[in-house]
């Protein structure tokens, strides 16, 4: 009876994850705590998940990556990579991205190239951004540190008492798999849309401009006193006074004759401005006025903004910027911007104040498409030290001289000592959600096993594939993982599928390694739907993609990827 109750609770967890209203970290923490209170996991098992060695290795790796992602190395490849027609550009971009993603965090690699690819004019960005995201996945599955998913799976492997996965164990299948999928992307490049950049037309439509006339009753009074902050559908964004731009505008700012006010929001509601005495609406110079301080950003998966509105977070005070427009995929959102719940991957057009670049929360909340306001890149000396140190750490751990965690801790200490990385930056970017999610997931996996729920699913798998043997069960485990990763996050998919895979291998009395690798590769096989993988959300709005665009090019890539996994894993990891 307990096993069925746990399965029902897992079904409820999955439904909430798919709905996406509550953060996975909160859901996994609540479920783990509930299983502990129900006596399904002991206090020691519950707390041990948060100190799992593979999980700690992942956290330290992500902290080291904060310095590596500031290396100018990827920028130097951009001009070379993006030459030639779309097919050649896709090939070069995919090859470079795959190579770097094998060692660096996928999100960092895509974030480093996102602005370069979006702003270049040789090839339509929409021809390149989906391949960029796909290639980051393909590079990630070639090494243990290529993607957080592999390290998450390794944490489950260690927790289950199995031998830990090795650095290049994934390469046996991952390299031929990546080559095959890159070839398919090049051959199917015609399926990618060719959206032309629409910056000028979209930006101009966001603004209304009005001027304080001579002898206006508005002059000498503050913004608040003139009730200009709560107009119907419009929002006061900036103020120009004698060629000087005041941005953002505070409520206590005293208006003067000749001031030019710039509004944003529902521009069709210009009547609200025309009815104000002493305010002349003309709206023809707004784009030129604001062109010097417009910045485009994409909301990151670490941001505090998703599922909240601009009003709720007090956007101006948080970032010294006003939101001019919001784009979600191929749609520009209209209406009162302050009331729109934001999502990861939304592209925001910001009119920024002079202190925007100095705000320490920018890099945590946004991926910037305008490189001029990015954090300072590492110098050549710093970049060489950071990259060579990381390469040495990987090499030393790969040959078995010293554990990866030890190597990364030494490298982290060096980065802090040389001030390439700061404690403040580590504090701001610490992956707390990931730590809580995976630590809780390990407790949930224990509950699935101790309650007998995982064994029930394994028995069902054995009955379902009766006559097809262990190979049929292997295919079934892989397909379940692929479906999960398409509808929820990749790490959550690995967490829910792993105990099922392990129990299935035990039910067939075979080596669990093929099933473990099926989980690892399957959890990274998110090509069809953009909402299950963070780099897809990063490129969706800058590329002006629809969900259909991902499905159209993702289907042949996904089929190729799956065929390679199902054919090669049993060869290199026999049952």
List the helices and strands and how they pair.
Elements: H1 2-19, H2 24-37, H3 43-48, H4 53-68, H5 73-81, H6 86-101, H7 106-119, H8 129-140, H9 148-159, H10 171-187, H11 199-204, E1 207-212, E2 234-241, E3 244-246, E4 260-265, H12 271-274, E5 279-281, H13 286-290, E6 294-299, H14 310-313, H15 315-319, E7 321-328, E8 331-333, E9 347-352, H16 362-365, E10 366-368, H17 380-398, H18 404-417, H19 423-429, H20 432-451, H21 453-464, H22 469-487, H23 490-507, H24 513-522, H25 534-540, H26 547-572
Antiparallel strand pairs: 1-4, 1-5, 2-3, 2-4, 6-9, 6-10, 7-8, 7-9
Helix pairs in contact: 1-2, 2-20, 4-9, 4-18, 5-6, 6-8, 6-10, 7-8, 7-25, 8-10, 8-25, 9-23, 9-24, 10-26, 17-18, 20-23, 21-23, 22-23, 22-24, 23-24, 24-26
Query: What coarse outline follows from CA principal-axis ratios?
Result: globular
Query: What's the story with the biggest beta sheet?
Result: 5 strands, antiparallel
Question: What's the average pLDDT?
Answer: 83
Structural class, from secondary structure content? alpha+beta
How do the strands of the widest beta sheet line up side by side?
Answer: 3-2-4-1-5
Distance between the termini: 32 Å
As a percent range, the share of helical residues equals: 40-55%
Radius of gyration: 26 Å
**What are the low-pLDDT stretches, counting only 5+ consecutive residues below 50?**
198-205
Q: Based on DSSP secondary structure assignment, what is the total number of beta strands?
A: 10
Task: Please indicate the percent range of residues in DSSP E strands (runs of 2 or more).
Answer: 5-15%
């Amino acid at each position: 009876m307990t096993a069925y109750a746990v399965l029902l609770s897992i079904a409820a967890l999955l439904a909430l994850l798919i709905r996406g209203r509550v953060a996975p970290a909160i859901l996994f923490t609540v479920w783990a705590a509930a299983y502990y209170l129900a006596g399904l996991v002991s206090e020691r098992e519950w707390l041990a998940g948060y100190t799992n060695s593979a999980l700690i290795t992942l956290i330290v790796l992500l902290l080291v990556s904060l310095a590596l992602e500031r290396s100018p190395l990827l920028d130097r490849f951009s001009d070379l990579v993006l030459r030639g027609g779309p097919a050649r550009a896709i090939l070069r971009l995919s090859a470079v991205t795959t190579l770097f993603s094998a060692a660096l965090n996928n999100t960092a690699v895509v974030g480093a190239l996102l602005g370069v690819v979006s702003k270049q004019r040789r090839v339509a960005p929409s021809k390149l951004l989906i391949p960029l995201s796909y290639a980051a996945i393909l590079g990630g599955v070639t090494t243990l540190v290529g993607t957080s998913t592999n390290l998450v799976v390794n944490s489950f492997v260690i927790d289950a008492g199995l031998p830990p996965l090795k650095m290049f164990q994934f390469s046996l299948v991952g390299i031929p798999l990546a080559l095959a999928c890159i070839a398919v992307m090049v051959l199917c490049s015609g399926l990618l849309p060719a959206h032309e950049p629409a910056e000028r037309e979209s930006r101009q439509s966001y603004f209304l401009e009005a001027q304080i006339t001579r002898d206006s009753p508005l002059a000498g009074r503050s913004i608040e006193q003139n009730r200009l902050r709560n107009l119907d559908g419009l929002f006061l964004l900036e103020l120009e006074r004698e060629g000087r731009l005041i941005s953002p505008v505070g409520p206590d700012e005293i208006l003067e004759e000749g001031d030019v006010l710039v509004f944003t929001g529902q521009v069709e509601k210009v009547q609200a401005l025309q009815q104000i005495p002493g305010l002349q609406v003309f709206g023809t110079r707004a784009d030129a006025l604001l062109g010097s301080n417009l910045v485009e950003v994409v909301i990151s998966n670490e941001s505090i903004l998703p599922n909240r509105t601009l009003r709720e977070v007090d956007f101006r005070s948080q970032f010294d910027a006003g939101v001019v427009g919001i784009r979600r995929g191929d749609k520009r959102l209209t209406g009162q911007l302050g009331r729109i719940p934001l999502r990861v991957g939304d592209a925001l057009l910001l009119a920024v104040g002079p202190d925007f670049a100095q705000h320490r929360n920018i890099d945590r909340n946004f991926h910037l498409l305008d490189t001029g306001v990015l954090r300072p890149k590492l110098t050549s000396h710093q970049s060489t030290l950071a990259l060579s140190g990381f390469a040495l750490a990987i090499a030393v751990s790969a040959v078995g001289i010293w554990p990866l965690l030890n190597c990364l801790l030494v490298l982290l200490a060096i980065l802090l000592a040389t001030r390439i990385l700061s404690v403040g930056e580590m504090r701001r970017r610490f992956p707390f959600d990931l730590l809580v999610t995976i630590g809780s997931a390990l407790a949930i996996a224990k509950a699935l096993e101790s309650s007998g729920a995982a064994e029930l699913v394994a028995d069902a798998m054995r009955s379902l594939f009766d006559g097809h043997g262990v190979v049929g069960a292997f295919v079934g485990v892989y397909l379940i993982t692929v479906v999960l990763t398409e509808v929820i996050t990749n790490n959550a998919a690995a967490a829910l599928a792993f105990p099922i895979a392990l129990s299935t291998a035990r039910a067939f009395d075979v080596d669990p390694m093929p099933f473990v690798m099926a989980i690892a590769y399957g959890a990274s096989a998110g090509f069809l739907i953009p909402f299950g993988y963070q780099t897809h959300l990063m490129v969706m709005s800058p590329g002006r993609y629809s969900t259909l665009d991902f499905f159209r090019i993702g289907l042949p890539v996904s089929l190729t990827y799956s065929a390679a996994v199902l054919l090669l894993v049993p060869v290199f990891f026999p049952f």
